[in-house]
Design goal:
With 387 residues, the chain is of the alpha/beta class. It has 13 helices and eight strands. β2, α4 and β3 form a beta-alpha-beta unit. α2 runs antiparallel to α11.
Length: 387
């Protein structure tokens, strides 16, 4: 039996198929799928229905040791253009050990409320405990280091006059001239995909910096959820309601200073991506229609891309006697060489080097995240990323 398997593995047809499937799935997810999205007809949409009365809103911000940002964040929320009597702000402090709690208590505005927890449970655990205490019809989620545009709440809330909409994801704008990363181009592609998927059917998940859902749609999530924003958005969609993307509802956040600063966060997200396959398995089912296609194409194939890259490289090495595959191997090695140069040249944004470097880094993070997920070593509680 072992001899038969070995002979099968040595067959060129097997390795040809292996190479083209693995490489083809990567190209499909990152290049072909975005192009196909441009050709898919959008839903007929008349635009947001303006309500005669704004719904009540509770903004939830889960924080841990955010003394550098929390005062500015509270001031930003209090200055939003939204009816004063319709706005509630709840800061959930997840075992903060710095001056975060003190600074929140210093706010004299009655709309600001602190819920301080002594023991750390992670952001999902904090949200699970905060939501039952809210009075708003809409729940708006954000982070301590993301700043809303003045009209952001209005842009989010205006869509909920349509009863078929369960959630609205805003647009995160990343900036930072001193950042060494090349996340900007990657984020622009993500923004395009969110907009097109929303126009066709529904967003995949949400963006933790700025999104809103109906309180009646709150799904509840396990306290050990690693990517709560994604899972919450997907579970709202599983209720039969759309989650749309509004590019006019803007939050601003700084890019990380370096790829290294971002690695821990990326690994945690990577572990959460594989966990999300388990938590959101219903969205993988083919009878979910376009939503399922988008989930497979945009997310699942990217999450398994590190394994596809390894398989493509190994199968390419096996096929090396063929001249065409000698060229393809040279191209692969050249790409990884550019990534290495990009690592050495951190701080100099030359896309030829920084883009391959960023691509390799996020896939390494996915690979590490996968092993953290299967070994159960990833925790829901987070550490601050240097910004």
């Amino acid at each position: 039996m072992a001899t038969q398997i070995l002979r099968f593995a040595q067959n060129d047809n097997f390795w040809l198929t292996t190479f083209f499937v693995s490489a083809g799935l990567i190209v499909y997810s990152y290049a072909i799928y975005p192009l196909l999205l441009a050709l898919v007809p959008s839903r007929r949409h008349e635009g947001p229905v303006e309500s005669s009365e704004w719904p009540s809103v509770t903004v939830l911000v889960s924080v841990y040791n955010e003394e550098k940002h929390i005062t500015e964040r509270i001031e930003n929320l209090l200055m939003l253009d939204y009816p004063r009597d319709k706005l509630e702000i709840i800061i959930g402090s997840d075992g903060s050990t710095d001056r975060t709690n003190e600074l929140v208590r210093n706010s004299t505005d009655p709309r600001v409320k602190l819920r301080a927890f002594d023991q750390r449970s992670g952001k999902p655990g904090v949200l699970n405990r905060l939501v039952p205490q809210t009075r708003g019809e809409l729940l708006v989620f954000s982070d301590a280091n993301a700043m809303f545009a003045p009209d952001a709440l209005q842009k989010l809330a205006r869509h909920f006059a349509d009863r078929k909409i369960g959630g609205v994801c805003g647009r995160l704008v990343l900036h930072g001239e001193n950042s060494e990363t090349d996340e900007g181009p990657y984020w622009k592609l993500e923004t395009y995909l969110k907009a097109r998927e929303s126009a066709v059917d529904s967003c995949l998940g949400a963006n933790g910096a700025i999104y809103a859902i109906r309180k009646s749609c709150w799904p509840g999530i396990p306290d050990n959820t690693f990517v709560d924003d994604f899972v919450i958005g997907m579970r709202v969609r599983e209720q039969g309601l759309r989650v749309i993307y509004d590019t006019e509802a803007v939050a601003v956040e700084e890019l990380p200073r370096s790829v290294g600063h971002e690695m821990t966060r990326r690994i945690r997200i990577g572990a959460g991506d594989f966990q999300a396959l388990v938590l959101c398995w219903r969205s993988l089912l083919p009878w979910r229609g376009f939503h399922s296609i988008a989930f497979w194409s945009h997310k699942v194939l990217r999450w398994i891309a590190p394994f596809l890259m390894i398989i493509a490289l190994i199968s390419n090495l096996v096929l090396l006697p063929h001249p065409v595959f000698a060229v393809l191997l040279a191209l692969q090695l050249a790409f990884y060489l550019l990534a290495i140069i990009g690592a050495v040249m951190q701080g100099r944004k030359i896309v030829l080097f920084s883009a391959p470097h960023y691509f390799v880094v996020i896939n390494l993070a996915l690979l590490f995240g996968f092993f953290r997920f299967i070994t159960g070593t990833q925790q829901a509680a987070w550490k601050r990323t240097a910004r």
